[in-house]
Amino acid sequence: MTTGSDFARDGGPRQQDIVRLLIAAGADPTMTDQWGVSPLQHAQQKGYNELADILARALT
Q1: What is the pTM of this model?
Q2: pLDDT tens digits for the chain (60 residues)?
Q3: Per-domain boundaries in the chain
Q4: Is 27 helix (H, G, I), strand (E, B) or coil?
Q5: Dihedral sign, CA of 42, 45, 50, 55?
Q6: Rounded CA gap, 32 and 38, in Å?
Q7: Are the CB atoms for 22 and 39 separated by under 8 Å?
Q8: Structural Rg of the chain based on CA atoms
Q9: Is 58 within 8 Å of 23 (Cβ atoms)?
Q10: Distance, CA of 55 to CA of 37 (rounded, Å)
Q11: Which of 54, 44, 47, 48 is closest to 19 using CA atoms?
Q12: Interior CA angle at 6 toward 31 and 46, to 5°?
């Protein structure tokens, strides 16, 4: 059984794959959270450089 803490939230390869799949399925990378912060901004703030690169490429 998995719990919420078992899911990839560290900017690593699993989370990168998840983000790629979401973008390929049509997820909007410009959507912001309740504080107006985008996924790209979150990735940059946390130092998830590979994840930030994926999101930045999705914006071009």
Answers
A1: 0.80
A2: 455 555 567 888 999 999 999 999 999 999 999 999 999 999 999 999 999 999 999 998
A3: 36-60
A4: coil
A5: positive
A6: 4
A7: no
A8: 12
A9: yes
A10: 13
A11: 54
A12: 45
